Amino acid sequence: MSVDKNTKAEMISDSSDNKYKVFKIDSIEGIYMIYALKSGKYHKIISQNSDSINSNWKPILPNVIYEFELDTLISQIGVYEHMSGLVWTYDGPTIDFEGDSIRDLYTSPNIKGLYYNPKIE
Questions:
Q1: pLDDT digits over 4-58, tens only?
Q2: Looking at the domain assignment, is residue 2 inside a domain?
Q3: Do 35 and 24 contact (CB within 8 A), yes or no?
């Protein structure tokens, strides 16, 4: 997978707190990969499918800005960060790092499956 370098990222600055623009959503074996941009940096957020969704949770859609509370799941920074194609196994499926653009995997307490709850921190 390669990340489109032409995607506009300058709309969201570092001073925008936790605002990220989702530009792509992918899945593998019940694990969702939500690709988001902030200040020209790409973020890959991992989320498991969930059956416990209520009316407080809203669908995550591409080209929409969300306030995600990101937690680093695993970081490739400083460890073979120049290499692409490195992988990590997350509860079954293998998740790829894009060494040229994505060097960290994240989770978020306010994401369940492909749903977002802004009231959870």
A1: 544 444 444 455 578 999 999 999 888 899 999 998 888 999 998 888 888 889 9
A2: no
A3: yes
